[in-house]
Design goal:
Elements (H helix, E strand, L loop, with lengths): L13 H6 L3 E8 L2 E8 L5 E7 L5 E3 L19 E3 L5 E4 L6 E4 L6 E2 L6 E10 L2 E9 L6 E6 L5 H4 L5 E4 L4 E7 L5 E7 L10 E8 L2 E10 L5 E5 L4 E6 L6 E6 L7 E2 L19 E3 L5 E7 L1 E8 L2 E4 L4 E11 L2 E8 L3 E8 L4 E7 L13 E7 L2 E8 L16 E5 L13 H7 L4 E6 L8 H4 L9 H15 L8 E6 L1 H12 L5 E5 L5 H7 L7 H5 L7 H7 L12 E6 L7 H14 L3 E6 L9 H19 L13
Parallel strand pairs: 31-32, 31-33, 33-34, 34-35, 35-36
Antiparallel strand pairs: 1-2, 2-3, 3-4, 5-6, 6-7, 7-8, 9-10, 10-11, 11-12, 13-14, 14-15, 15-16, 17-18, 18-19, 19-20, 21-22, 22-23, 23-24, 25-26, 26-27, 27-28, 29-30, 30-32
Helix pairs in contact: 5-6
Amino acid sequence: MTIPYGAWPSPISAAAVSAASPRIEGARFVGDDIWWGESMPEEGGRSSIRRRDADGEVHDVLPAPWSARSRVHEYGGGAWTTTDDGDLVFVEKTDQRVWLLSPGEAPRPLTAAGGDVRFGGLLWQAGRLLAIREAHGDGPVPVRDLVTIPLDGSGALDAASLVQLVGDSDFVAQPALSPDGTRLAWIAWDHPAMPWDRTELRVGRVEEDVVVEWATVAGGETAPLQPIWLSDEDLLHLDDPSGRWNIERLHLSADLPERAVSPADADTGAPLWVLGARWYAVLDDGRIVAVRTDGADEVVLIAGDDVTPLTAPPVWNTNIEDARGTRVLVSGASASAGPGLWVVDVDAGTVATVRGGESPWGDEWMPRPRAVSFDGPRGPVHAFDHPPTNPEVTAPDGELPPYVVFVHGGPTTHVGPAASPRIAWFTSRGIGVLDVNYGGSSGYGRAYRERLLGGWGVVDVEDVADAARGIAASGVADPARIAIAGGSAGGWTVLAALARTEAFAAGISRYGVGDARMLAADTHDFEARYLDGLIGPLPEAEAVYIERSPLTHRDGFRVPILLLQGADDRVVPPAQSEAVRDALAERGIPHAYVVYEGEGHGFRRTETLVHAYESELAFLGAVFGFDVPGIPPIVLS
């Protein structure tokens, strides 16, 4: 049948999109089972730990209302691990204490109550439970260190029972004990650097659970990540002296230089936003399974100088979660069916789905993204085009579809060619999506990532505007019906592009930044100096902050805007969206402002996600003049 773009009927509901987009939060082999963490939107965003047994049955290990979620760095990560006996150790979201759950028993605390003390990056290794501790006191800067936590519960009675392994820096991450337990490797960095700018790989000698001396063995001007010991003297890690993160091998007992392991013009590694991220694993026989990213992800097997691509579904946000024998657990998002978790056997060549990774509507409803690039003032601007896709409908001859330009957050992250259910929500209704990796995005090497240094609010804005003009000039999109949508840092780019360009006919901002000075004053410690690199240090660069902020150019707002905000957001507080709302109201610009109680930075609850998805679609219909079947209309002020 023939129906105008935007009004196509679709079987993809907002509730189904929420349920079909599992957020995998770590995974590992435990005995004969596979365990993984998963956000449960239908349970208020609770982070459960689940397991699939040898018969393929799925069980909840962590029952409601318990929720395994860390708030270290606010973004968390590494909120759970398991012991050799199959006990679950996790960080409880509500109190940020560490708890132990043994089969058939109730959880019992391992760390003390009281005070704002958080734990994350949990690691069970060499019979010890390691964790990153973040203690918030009266001052503005929390104290972070690496600690060992006893399993006997003594730490719940006396915080002094937790032994500090090492501190000595503003941030610590990714600890790794040598096989004999006498050395500790970890990643450290200090303000104002972010962990994709400059970090240090440190190695220290351990005596009685304390690092008595340490040295920096890599980094300083580069950004090493993820140390893994091959032996008591040989250490693998990631580093980017070439401009690309590659695996490096370091021999600590010999006066030998670092050696790249099968270097490539692609990244094995990504910005360390969460503590549980892992981009490679070593098999029992010494072979390495690794992610390589150049726009899209590829999983490869490295055996000496031989590199073999593996048949693994993920093409974006890929993590090598765990390895056992010839099997690896791989999480990420696939090109045709969205997020999931898979077991890949590198010798047998088999792939088995553990969770997700399948389209409940059939692959014919999922768009096939294509990599595109557009000319920008600093070089090519990379993006992925997801065209309208519906096997049952065609558009009238000569009509061009409306498009939404997606702007990712971060800003130091990237998007890949993954056909997510959220994108299919739009494309199945005849709305194309252009997912843009503007200058400053990861996934294309350090030089592309550093295009944004000193240029946030300029480079990103010019790039998304050029991408919108480029997709229109190519004859793919209707130039009069191109919207822009993004969240957090992506919301900043949305608002700035709407205020300072004429490339877009509408905008959707999820918890977007409107005033850079407000962000600098309100944000948490992990990102407290992020803007030093993106814009400039304060107070010297205050005039630049004012000039770059979308609210400074409120007279430039001229098209309708939808604002979506979490009431409990500590990264970008509601005051930011409220200031934009007030500016729109003062100028009489059509808009809607929706606040979700109980939501923080990133929506997790089913009811929130459903309402947000439907509001976005209804907003586009109201602005672009098409009826959306089955979606409640939205009222614009």
